[in-house]
Amino acid sequence: MISYKERNPVTAKITSKNQVTIPKSIRTALDIKSHDHIIFYTNEQGDVVIKSVDKKKAFWEDVEEQQATYGSIDDKEMTWGEDLEAEDFD
Q: What residues have CB less than 8 Å from 69, skipping those under 6 apart?
């Protein structure tokens, strides 16, 4: 078993709004920045694990969500919504 000393522990405080700032050493280790997504889960031993989300995978999940809502940009029937600034040209 790995001791806490070997894991380079850092601490963080939970605010009154139940928020935590992720320490810089952890952000660096996970290669995460502002607005990135992270995953929390518990493993078989009951430890909480934090992982960064694969940025390319997250991007394509966002694209698929947008396509489900608005249609594919390759689709001639894509629903762009009402054009509020439409102009008539001669």
A: none
The residues, any chain, with a CB within 8 Å of residue 54's CB and separated by 6 or more, are none
Q: What is the tens place of the pLDDT at every residue in 55-86?
A: 777 778 878 888 888 777 676 665 666 666 66
Q: How far apart are CA 20 and CA 14, in angstroms?
A: 5
Which H or E run contains 39? strand 38-42
Instruction: Please give the structure tokens belonging to residue 58.
Output: 């997250």
CA–CA distance, 81 with 10 (Å, rounded to integer): 48
Name which residue leads in pLDDT, 61 or 21.
21
**Distance between CA atoms of 21 and 13, rounded to whole angstroms?**
8
Instruction: State percent of the chain over pLDDT 90.
Output: 22
Q: Which domains are present in the chain?
A: 1-73 (2.10.260.10)
